[in-house]
Amino acid sequence: MKKYTLIIILIALIFIPSSCEKMPDEVVDNFKLGVNSDFLEYTLVVQFVDAGNPITAPENIELKVLNNENNGLLDSEGKEGFTVDNGIASFILNPTSKPNSPDDIKTYNIYATASGFLPVNFTVNFTEDQKNQNLTINMVNTASPPEGVANNTKNIPLSGGNLNNTTSVSVASAGNKITGADLKIDSGTEFYDLDGNRISGGTLNVSLTHFDANGDASLNSFPGGFTPESVIGETGEEENIFFVTAGFASIDMNIAGTNVRKFSKPIEVTMEINPEGYNLETDSKIKVGDKIPVWSYEVESGQWVFEKEGIVVMDSEKLKVSFETDHLTWYNLDFYGRRCYKSKSIVIKAPGTDTYDYFYTELVYAYNDQPVSYYASKNMRLYNNAEINFYRCPLANCKFKIYSGSSWYNKGELIAETAPFFPCDENTTITLPASAFPEVISANVTFSCPDSNFEFKPSYYFYYKEKGSYWWRYGYMSNGKFQSYFMTPGKTYDFRTYFGGLVETEFTVSSGVNYITINSDEICEFAL
């Protein structure tokens, strides 16, 4: 791959459509240097990681935007198709679809699949004050799941498409797995596809993946997050709900490659319950006799539906919940509460600073430090007097935490946290200590085309890490400027970004502000 200097790389990334009035296929045919900043006003970067080995990314990820009305979400080249390169997907919001008022939210659901991994469906929201989004999305490899997650895959012989003997598939609680799960299928069960057609074949393939209700890796892999966009509640109507999980499982079955979705006899699902788990209804630990709502989740659509209540029992000295079902999906044991449209403000105080950087932050429940959702656990742009608001925020007692690291798997040190507060009801303030802002490394970049007397400053995201390190940090260049408190003068850093493919280089930074002007006929000819 052709390599440029860091600055040329970031400049090259400003190749964007020159007119927002054209359809995506027309725009791609007319790429020019980025003089139309409208196309980069709203951006999204998604980093997919293997939850069990976060330094790697799933291969051959396929993406689908489920509700992409009027091509509102485009890839970073202005195309309708979406690609993932080294685990990174880059998007831009079509200017014709941007929010048109402070309370307008543009919402997109993205569905991602990869061979050997459980599929994921996640929601992205754009608002007037949330323009440059960056998310880390976990994908679970069933062959090597993360801590707190386990999978058991079993091939069960059939006779004429029927199950001859009652059988079970189990995930045991052992080692770092606190709870287990079991699936029982009765003798004589017949299997049907989504349309109700009976499936014939000689072997039933069953894959049971169970998730503990605690631990960063397991909770950050929760499908759709804990404040989902669409939930059909107990009333049969769509409700604004947040979840507090007691455990969840993915169950997949197929016969000769045809997915099983329904059964002639109900199957029984049993999940163990952590005795330290929290019952939101009683504000205490889970105990025998407690009722836990059972929810189904269709990962293909992102739809949650209330199914029934399960009752906690003691069996073989373990707390368990069992329930029957006649259809196949994800199943989750979740207490639930209500959520508000938009939280009050969390105000950042950073005395003595006048610049910003990206820190890993988490909004967590105060009672157990469980992340509220993947959208509330991410890199945020922090600076003095910054105001942070969360949409679809739980009506619950929470804390806001700021870390020195870059992700849930590389949190670094806890820098600051709030006292417990109710984000839907009250503003709160959090102060970053001076130690969070050591010497800042800055760059002020100008790209010049000598023959045309044209110059500009790029705006785009990038990732960087110290050479030899595992963990990437997120950065953003705005009008040719970026700064970082996480670089050291004289050290060399790897930089990468994605625009029609991976672009990467290394660069040795110096103290203070790096004023850089690039004069290059070659790059100008390539771009114009």
Question: Can you characterise this structure?
Answer:
The protein is mainly beta and 528 residues long. Helix content is 4%, strand content 47%. The chain contains four helices and 42 strands. Strands 10, 14, 15, 16, 17, 18, 22, 23, 26 and 31 form a ten-stranded mixed beta sheet that branches. A hairpin with a 6-residue loop joins strand 7 and strand 8 (120-126). The longest helix has 7 residues, at 6-12. The radius of gyration is 25 Å and the shape is globular. The relative contact order is 0.13.
Defining key terms:
mainly beta; 6-stranded antiparallel beta sheet; 42 strands; disordered N terminus
Compact summary:
By secondary structure, the protein is mainly β. The chain is 4% helix and 47% strand.
Distance from N terminus to C terminus (CA atoms, Å) equals 21 Å
Q: How much helical structure, as a percent, in the residues?
A: under 10%
Counted by DSSP, the helix tally is 4
Rounded mean pLDDT is 85
Structural class: mainly beta
Major sheet summary line: 10 strands, mixed
Give a count of the beta strands, DSSP E runs of length 2 or more: 42
> What form results from the Cα inertia axes?
globular
Q: How much is the radius of gyration in Å?
A: 25 Å
List low-confidence stretches.
1-36, 522-528
Q: Tell me the fraction of residues in β-strands, as a range.
A: over 45%
